[in-house]
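User: Fold this; tokens only.

Assistant: Input:
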Amino acid sequence: MRRCYRAARCSRDDYCLPAFIAAEHGLQRVDPEGATLNIEVWMAFHEDVRATPRIQAVSEFVRHCMAVLPRL
């Protein structure tokens, strides 16, 4: 993470850094209301186990975790 901060500091571009890095170095948000970060999470399961309760539980857990993440 520190490497990301150093790269951002040496550039004139905008960077998306974790809040704890920004707070540690006194950085400020640019357009916090309009900025969003979209990511895709792919999960691959073998066809034979895709419908098992254990795999379904993991899949639902990951979906729930991703749904409650704040928009960056």
